[in-house]
Amino acid sequence: MDTPAPIDRLSGILERFRVQAQLHHSGALCGLNRFDACEGHGYLHVLRRGQLEVSHPGARDLDVPRSLRFDEPTLLLYPRPLTHRFRNPPVEGADFTCARLSFDGGPHNPLARALPPLIALPLAQVPGLGQALELLFLETDRVRCGQRLLADRLFEVVVLQLLRWLLDHPRQAGVQPGLITGLSDPRLARTLVALHDFPGEAWTLERMAERAGMSRTAFANLFRERVGQTPADYLSSWRIALAQSRLREGRSLKLLAGELGYANPSALSRAFAARVGLAPREWLAQKPAAALA
Question: Do 145 and 33 reside in the same domain of the chain?
């Protein structure tokens, strides 16, 4: 029996919902010890040497420890805005750098939504990060032409490598059922990638199950267990997320309806309102607020 060809589980998502990084700080923190959720950013912190204690004031309703201490090289990813404070920030001689992260679509970004509020991993636990981090620290050690732009791109490489690792180790990172755990299953990944790449096709349950190489019942049960939604509900969520992204870019409902598998703009508008709670025009009128919700 032929071995299924490997598939790219991330490009289809990241091409439609970019993750952008912006160098925020490098070196000793020098009094910088609070990162407020009201600023609207996610963060990626890399502690390469030294000690760090981080606390999360007001995080009682979230699945986040009140405080954590790190005394080995560690990566901390906050995919969504979450207030956090460093109690004993790195001092001179500590290799520390961090970037602000922006996920296209904000909290509605499929990847941001699928990740836990905090991922804290020893650097040694994530193979492949070494070379990118070496380049990142070389760039942030001293100011050179194009330093900030290159550092931003290197941070994005680190995020991509981390996402790759998470797809293969979702349980180790505490990832709950959702997109990441779905993509971590080779059978479901074949279907999910097809949905991401061709959202406008007529995706029946039978066709989705066939793409996964499973019976309809087994596929539907596994999908619900790993992704936390029915296949039809996930497809609808993905289509509406794409509609939101493209409406922000100025695309018309008429063009989007056909691209996303709806019979006409009215059908898309009804599906949009059912999921978002607002008609597309109303949602666009509140776009700044929606992006920060």
Answer: yes
Question: Which residues make beta-bridge pairs with 233?
Answer: none
For the whole model, what pTM was predicted?
Answer: 0.85
In the chain, where do the E strands start and end?
A: 19-26, 34-35, 42-47, 52-55, 67-70, 74-78, 84-86, 96-103, 119-122
The domain of 163 spans 11-168
Count other C-beta atoms under 10 Å from residue 164's C-beta.
15
Amino acid (one-letter) located at 215 = S
Q: Do 146 and 247 share a structural domain?
A: no
User: Same structural domain for residues 129 and 20?
Assistant: yes
Residue 141 pLDDT > 80, yes or no?
no
Q: Which of the four pLDDT bands, split at 50, 70 and 90, describes residue 271?
A: very high
262 and 157 fall within a common domain: no
Question: Strand ranges (DSSP E) for 116-182?
Answer: 119-122
Give residue 289's pLDDT. 42
The least confident of 75-79, 97-101, 116-120, 287-291 is: 287-291
Contact indicator for 44, 129 with CB cutoff of 8 Å: no
Q: How confident is the model over 214-236, as pLDDT tens digits? A: 999 999 999 999 999 999 999 99
HSE-up of residue 170 (Cα within 13 Å, Cβ side): 17
- Phi (first) and psi of residue 53, to 5 degrees: -120, 130
What is the token pair recorded at 42? 């996610």
99-103: average pLDDT: 92
CA 264 to chain centre: 31
CA distances 78 to 48, 100, 167, 254, 267, Å, are 17, 9, 17, 37, 36
